[in-house]
Amino acid sequence: MTTIALTAIFVLLFTGSLLLSAALLRIGLILVRAENIRWPADLTIVLIAAVINAILAFATVAVSSFGSSVELVAAVIQLICAVAVPCVLIRKLYRVTFPRAFCSWLPTLLCPILFIPFSVYILGPYVMESFSAPTSSMAPTLVGPHVRAKCPVCGARAFMAPPDRRMGTSIYPRYAICETHFHTSIPQSNDAVVQPADRFMTLKLLRPKRWDVITFRLPFAPEQIYVKRLVGLPGEKIVIKDGGVWANDERLEPPAELKGLQYLSEIEEVDFTLSGTERRPAYLLGDEYFVLGDFSQHSADARFWTAGAPGHHSYAVPEDHLLGVVTHIYWPPSRWRILK
Ligand SMILES: [Zn+2]
After folding, report:
1. What's the gap in Å between 177 CA and the centre of ligand 1?
2. Ligand 1 center–CA 156 separation, angstroms
3. What confidence tens digit (pLDDT) does each residue in 224-282 have?
4. Does the structure show a pLDDT above 90 at 59?
């Protein structure tokens, strides 16, 4: 369902930008006094230009892992094609000189500029937004920059922090979490190649439900955006016990895809009492939520927070700090998946 919604949004945006570009091109063609101006030709030009641009943008992202110089060359090629391709098409279809074709294309450059306010004030805040995972506190569901290892328990692929980075609150980047059973372990070795972080889409139109992966503003530093799993709802008493989450003294049953996930109420390297545990339960107010990371050993989640939003518990995410529900991982292609 979310895939259909996102596809519909993209089709609408693409169609809207095509029509706007065609209208701007028409203005350009009138200004250079081109003859026999016609909508089908204008739409063909902007459509072909948009498709080639999209393919080149995709290629630029794909080669970005080969280094910044390769990415720069790809970006320059993309820029040249973005101007050259439509100019050649205009020249051919309207029989104008190359400088006139270039001048008639210039107004279409306003399209992204006109799109910015729409993106900043409507699309981003109310419809959807894309993020990348900075850490692997939500691994294996979402991974930040990471190295891969073999789970010593089941042999499946496991994720762990690169040697020079730290995941979550742990000071020791030595644990890995396996992809299939959430086994947390210390592998003997890893492949040492730093893999890119997941990029994912957040849909703002959905109301977050329990077990959804959500984005939200960090209560004590709202300029920072975090991604965690929603486990506690307003009005509940939340306790992590025996590897699970208990709401109002009843153990919650996570969805099947989280089978094996163990939430920790104590961390070896941490010497203070965590929130949401038997010794310090989280009592949520009517507009407060409780969030945890899937990689419980390495997640700086609500258990650790010592300061909260004004008027709220330190461990709570107030309702007005929620941003949206993570629906798709779209990059890299090998990590593509639908979460909701
Ligand atoms: Zn395993």
Report:
1. 7
2. 5
3. 999 999 999 999 999 999 999 999 999 999 999 999 999 999 988 788 999 999 999 99
4. no
Domains of the chain: 2-130 (no CATH), 198-338 (2.10.109.10)
Distance 187 CA to ligand 1 centre (A): 11
In whole angstroms, give the CA distance from residue 112 to residue 83.
14
Q: Give residue-wise pLDDT tens across range 136-187.
A: 999 999 999 999 999 999 999 999 988 765 444 444 557 999 999 999 998 8
CB–CB of 283/313 below 8 Å?
yes
Residue 197 · residue 141 · CB < 8 Å: no
Bond prior to 152 in cis (omega within 30° of 0): no
CA 150 / ligand 1 centre spacing (Å): 8
Task: Give the list of residues 6+ apart from residue 6 with CB closer than 8 angstroms, or none.
Answer: 128, 201, 203, 327, 328
Question: Closest by alpha carbon to 219, among 87, 314, 129?
Answer: 314
Other Cβ atoms less than 10 A from the Cβ of 277: the count is 18
As a whole number of Å, the end-to-end CA separation of the chain is: 8
- Angstrom distance (rounded) from CA 28 to CA 44: 16
Ligand 1 center to 151 CA (angstroms): 5
Residue 185 CA, ligand 1 centroid: distance in Å = 8
Distance 160 CA to ligand 1 centre (A): 13
Amino acid at 115: F
Ligand 1 centre to CA of 82 (Å) is 47
- Identify the CA nearest to 175 among candidates 141, 139, 199: 139
Q: How far is the CA of 260 from the centre of ligand 1 (A)?
A: 9
Residues 177/140, Cβ–Cβ less than 8 Å:
yes
| Token digits of residue 123 | 């699309």
Contacts 24+ apart (CB under 8 A), 308-315: 308/219, 308/220, 309/219, 309/220, 309/222, 312/219, 312/285, 312/288, 313/282, 313/283, 313/284, 313/285, 313/288, 314/219, 314/220, 314/275, 315/275, 315/276, 315/282, 315/290
- Spacing, Cα 57 to ligand 1 middle (Å): 37
